[in-house]
Amino acid sequence: MGKTYEQASIRDIMNAVNTSDAGVKMTYDSLRNQFTLESTTEGAASDVTFTDSSSGLLKALGIVDGTKTQGTDAEFTLDGVAGMKRSSNNFTIDGVTYTLKGTSTAPVSISVEQDIDAVVDNIKEFVNKYNELLDTINGRVSEKYDRDYLPLTDEEKEKMSEKEIEKWESRAKTGILANDSILSRIVSSMRTALYDKVEGVSMSLYEMGISSSSYTDKGKLKIDETKLRKALTENFDEVVRFFSAESEYSYMDSLDSSSKRTERYKESGIAQRLYDII
Fold it and tell me: How does the average pLDDT of the chain come out, rounded?
């Protein structure tokens, strides 16, 4: 049985406030013996407005007559551009994430290094998922149809148990997608997407250390990690763009316009192309 308002403790009230959509966080500081209402919005845009209840709860907690501190934006100079502002001390500009930890009157130098290890791990994961998907589709396309297990008639089902029917129908579905034209076309389009040029990228998949395995593996990819790391060291931006470039046209834009569909394909990196195909 839930508590009534009369039975609610201060902890219950704090939990109710903090799990609501009021946009504030209520805390208690035992050292100063005071309650605080803090906006969950950062920076100058943060503000807290409240109306006390007839019971005077907020007044009793010291909030009504308490001290209000208005939030402010972080101000900084970056690459010679002064007066820049952000609502949080943590922000990202041009793909670089910054954390402001204090104030300084002297210039602060920042060095940026490419995280090659993280990109290599992401590409490995991509290749693994690609190969898994290829395995699944190729398995369905090449699966042999078992003609000994035709679909059951109603009369046949009446003579069988639920488990027998389930087992039979599972076998009857074996090979139902064998040589399916849609799945075959998907596989063909996926392979083509890997080797078609991505706009703004001069490198090929092979030059990045990624190539198809033997014919028996039906197009699965393998990675030469030494070659991939060399490509990332020398052409980091191109390798990343090859996989992650996004077109200015959305998928919905491309549905009703062949010219936009062509342009989206050219501008898209491999991830977006495969998404569209599947």
Answer: 85
